[in-house]
Specification:
alpha/beta, Aldehyde Dehydrogenase, Chain A, domain 2, 6-stranded mixed beta sheet, globular, binds nicotinamide-adenine-dinucleotide
Length: 450
């Protein structure tokens, strides 16, 4: 497989803009012609409602494809930069070139989007690609394995299926870039394997993304948007608000607003709602149930083990040292912690690993500015959750323990390219100032030019 991909790349097939455009068109056709099959696979893996398939998977892909097609020519064009006096007469520019063979490893929670969204910049940048879907989302992985070779150039894009053993073997191959999405523990395995060939990596990891509800915030809007971000895909979203920090005196009002929103979205029995996803498998169901041990449930709390469903559940009186505050929850459980004020909320976040996303609900401009300046996070959103994902020009990725490297839009294209520096010098006139023999006069001239 690798020999075939390398040969395709070496022949220059993937470099032509026509090939790149053709592949982006084919990818769009793959999605448009198979929406029903994709919905069915996601229904079987996660009980994902059709509307969430459109919102969380397909529409993001359609928008990324459209954006890449529109800007492809500009992104691939030489990017002129200024040449200083010492380099004159001459011209300098940055030329994006494809890297070679890129490995994309997806996670199970958005099993279509997380393999195809990195594929868009990988193809746009002119690379050959190996795709490794997550084996945990069984039906979607099988569907990706069936559709991708039917629509895309099989000499340049291949799918490898499998779990730990197969992935371990795959990682022994030499790639020119690896984009991995998943947890930090496997991220370290990927990075170690990549070190063998000094392969650059993009790690799209997770973490505990906080949502802060500031004094005077619009609580109804905050509750609706926090719950939407938390309940989409039953909380199995890397950028879902993991926990809430609410400033003193507002907790009960926020809980009332959350209760009302839960009812408005999912009715009397969220477990029976067809608008609400299931937990991916029994292992994750048990892990999430474990977080409820010894906790005070303010809202929800019911679960159906058979159906692997857990109600949107709000916990109160949670202590920072409790298990639920140690790891990313990655499920529909929302601890609400009370803090004295914004300063305390900022300290709480800063004392922990840098998150993948951070949210602030406020009406206060100065607080908004402080949050943006003082919180180091992969992505940040004021007065909403998740919505920054819909902006193709916003690079997406983590920082610190939430990951490294960004993609989406131009950032993705650049990530999947080598940005080669090029300088072209004119042969005349030849200014001898840089050549030996050195002299006082040359030194003076050099100083003047520097
Ligand atoms: P996962 O179990 O699907 O694993 C991810 C990938 O790693 C899969 O392709 C899997 O086959 C492979 N893998 C698993 N074990 C391996 C091993 N020992 N050696 C080599 N490869 C191995 O996904 P997960 O880790 O459960 O994903 C959940 C995490 O991913 C959460 O932390 C979430 O926040 C994060 N996530 C991040 C993003 C993002 O874009 N930043 C998106 C979705 C999920």
């Amino acid at each position: 497989m690798m020999d075939q991909l390398r040969a395709t790349f070496a022949r220059g097939v993937t470099r032509s803009l026509d090939w790149r455009r053709g592949q982006l068109d084919a990818l769009e056709r793959l999605l448009r012609e198979n929406e029903a099959a994709i919905e069915k696979a996601l229904e079987r893996d996660l009980a994902k409602p059709a509307q969430e398939v459109l919102l969380g998977e397909l529409s993001l892909l359609y928008s990324e494809i459209k954006h890449a097609r529109k800007h492809l020519k500009r992104w691939t064009r030489p990017r002129r930069v200024r040449t200083p006096a010492v380099g004159q007469p001459g011209r300098s520019w940055v030329q994006a070139e494809p890297l070679g063979v890129v490995l994309i490893m997806g996670a199970w929670n958005y099993p279509v989007q997380l393999v195809l969204s990195p594929l868009i910049p990988a193809l746009a940048a002119g690379n050959a690609v190996v795709i490794k879907p997550s084996e945990i989302a069984t039906h979607t992985a099988a569907l990706m394995g069936e559709l991708i070779p039917r629509y895309l150039d099989a000499n340049a894009v291949q799918v490898v299926q499998g779990a730990v053993d197969e992935t371990t073997e795959l990682l022994k191959q030499r790639f020119d870039h690896i984009l991995y999405t998943g947890g930090a523990a496997v991220g370290k395995i990927v990075m170690k394997a990549a070190a063998e060939y000094l392969t650059p990596v993009t790690l799209e990891l997770g973490g505990k993304s906080p949502a802060v509800v500031d004094a005077g915030a619009d609580l109804e809007s905050a509750a609706r948007r926090i719950f939407w971000g938390k309940c989409l895909n039953a909380g199995q979203t890397c950028i879902a608000p993991d926990y809430v920090l609410v400033t003193q005196g507002q907790r009960e009002h926020l809980l009332d607003a959350l209760r009302a929103q839960l009812h408005a979205m999912y009715g009397d029995d969220p477990l029976a709602s067809s608008d609400y996803c299931k937990i991916i498998n029994a292992r994750h169901f048990k892990r999430l149930q474990g977080y409820l041990d010894g906790q005070t449930v303010a809202i929800g709390g019911k679960a159906d083990e058979q159906a692997e469903r857990i109600e949107p559940t709000v916990l109160v009186d949670v202590k920072p040292e409790d298990a639920v505050m140690q790891e990313e929850i990655f499920g529909p459980i929302l601890p609400v912690l009370e803090v004295p004020d914004l300063d305390a909320a900022l300290s709480f976040i800063r004392e922990r690993d840098k998150p993948l996303a951070a949210y602030l609900f406020t009406r206060n401009k100065a607080h908004e500015q402080r949050f943006v300046e003082e919180i180091s996070t992969g992505n940040l959103c004021i007065n909403d959750t998740l919505m920054f994902m819909s902006v193709p020009d916003l690079p997406f990725g983590g920082v610190g323990m939430s990951g490294m490297g960004q993609y989406h839009g131009k950032a993705g294209f650049d990530r999947m390219s080598h940005l080669k520096s090029v300088m072209k010098r004119s042969r005349f006139p030849e200014v001898s100032v840089r050549f030996p023999p050195y002299s006082g006069l040359k030194m003076k001239l050099l100083r003047w030019l520097s």
